[in-house]
């Protein structure tokens, strides 16, 4: 049976807030994983751009004694070359973690706000944010 307009609005706000928090949790997890995995690329490209005379040309001691323009260019190229495999590794780590934690199953449909008697945990879903007693044998791709 449909809910009253005010009750529907209140439930929509609750479900929207919960879905926003789940989205922010996914975004934070993705940001942390990508930052950690791509740190070598970030460091190599940073030092390459910092010591190149046509870009930043830092007056740091290591730029004058160790890195010239050719080696700075090599660092920049190396950084961009190793970025592609590291992006694949970071995405694989994020996907496996999100699947193991079942984060994508925590999103709730807005039909819970419109109709009374909806369940927070649909049959066959076993996410940590769902009610207890749900089936935990569900595959993520189903």
Write the layout of secondary structure elements.
Layout: H1 5-37, H2 39-51, H3 61-65, H4 69-101, H5 111-114
InterPro entries: TMEM88
Main location: membrane
Keywords: Membrane, Transmembrane, Transmembrane helix
Description:
With 142 residues, this protein is an all-alpha fold. It has one domain (5-104). Helices cover 62% and strands 0% of the residues. The chain contains five helices and no strands. It has helices at residues 5-37, 39-51, 61-65, 69-101, 111-114. α2 (39-51) runs antiparallel to α4 (69-101). The longest helix is centred in the N-terminal third of the chain and has 33 residues, at 5-37. It is elongated and about 75 Å long.
Principal-axis shape:
elongated
Radius of gyration, CA atoms, in whole angstroms: 24 Å
Assembly type: single chain
Distance between the termini: 28 Å
Strand content: under 5%
Along the chain, the helix and strand elements come as HHHHH
Poorly predicted residue ranges: 130-136
Calculate the mean pLDDT score and round it. 81
What is the makeup of the main sheet?
Answer: none
Overall structural domain count: 1
Structural class: mainly alpha
* Share in helix: 55-70%
**Can you count the beta strands?**
0
Compute the number of helices: 5
Protein name: TMM88 protein
Membrane topology: Multi-pass membrane protein
GO cellular component, one term: plasma membrane
Subcellular location: Membrane
């Amino acid at each position: 049976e449909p809910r009253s307009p005010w009750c529907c609005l209140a439930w929509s706000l609750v479900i929207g807030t919960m879905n926003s928090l789940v989205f922010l949790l996914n975004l934070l997890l993705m940001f942390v994983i990508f930052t950690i995995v791509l740190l070598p690329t970030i460091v190599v490209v940073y030092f390459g751009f910092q010591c190149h005379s046509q870009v930043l040309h830092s007056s740091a001691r290591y730029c004058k004694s160790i890195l010239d323009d050719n080696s700075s260019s090599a660092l920049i190229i190396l950084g961009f070359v190793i970025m592609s495999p590291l992006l694949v590794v970071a995405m694989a780590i994020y996907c496996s973690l999100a699947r193991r934690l079942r984060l994508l199953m925590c999103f709730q449909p807005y039909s819970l706000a419109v109709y009374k008697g909806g369940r927070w945990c649909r049959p066959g879903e076993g996410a940590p944010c769902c009610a207890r007693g749900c089936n935990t044998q569900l595959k993520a791709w189903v």
